[in-house]
């Protein structure tokens, strides 16, 4: 068991992510990008399964596997592609939310510093995006609620983890960029920005949980 991703695991994660992002930036089509896109997330799922302990182990691994499924679905071209990918990520967010909620401790200070600004940002995003989401207001609204709940519960996890919370924020940012690019205004470099923030989010979530676990174990040993 390790307390964080090893140097080699981190380098492999970054290398695989960079290869996919470069291919995406070059508009490379075909099977290769589809196969490469989920590999960094599958690596994190393997790390989580091997190293996390207790009730978080299966949950976080499952969330990562559903994320990898969403990656594949969004990379393919077929009718209903976006809704299918959104559904897989919705399941991932619900699993994250459930697992973070079980580790949460609700305190007034956390709400005022972290949770209230998160909710305000989510409401602002909904006001901007939902009127422009054509016939997809319902699934987009459900997903927005789910990822906001995930970030809120990550903010309340106790003992707190700044790395985990940063990962949740990065995930919200990545999905916000997707929504803005799809429904509001396409922007140059969107593919790169979305994938960089997405990969970073998942890496920070797993790293934050591993560090938190190590700190808990160190505290138990000292006691």
Automatic annotation (TrEMBL):
Where is coiled-coil annotated?
A: none
Q: How does it sit in the membrane?
A: Multi-pass membrane protein
Compartment(s) where it occurs, according to its Swiss-Prot or TrEMBL record: Membrane
InterPro entries, alphabetically?
TMEM86B-like
Q: Which UniProt keywords apply?
A: Membrane, Transmembrane, Transmembrane helix
**Any Pfam family the entry gives:** YhhN
Q: Transmembrane helix as a keyword?
A: yes
Origin superkingdom? Bacteria
Where does the sequence pass through the membrane? Answer: 9-26, 32-49, 56-76, 82-101, 113-134, 140-157, 162-180, 192-210
Question: Main location per UniProt?
Answer: membrane
The family assignment reads: Belongs to the TMEM86 family.
Protein name (Swiss-Prot/TrEMBL): Lysoplasmalogenase
